[in-house]
Amino acid sequence: MKSWELDMTLLKIFMGAVKSALPPMDIDTIVSEIQRTVREELDYEREARVMTQIGEQLAGIPGNHHPGPGGGTQQPACADHRIRPRSQTHHRAG
What we know:
Blueprint: H1 3-18, H2 27-41, H3 44-58, H4 86-89
């Protein structure tokens, strides 16, 4: 069993144990949704496919730079790169 699967099992056990102390809610649905989301986020092949698809959709937008699978980027990551023109975002000391 992978460690995150054990964590999800422990989450389910814990939530079952504290269920009576919490306001009325559908704990099983909440735990199932958390488990589903964690599984999706840890499916790195799926994440790579999604990144590639998004990159293809954004490729035609001038000035847009996005990360690619494998940690590579088309441009160095810069938070304000999306706001200012490129000429204003990359100042190198001479």
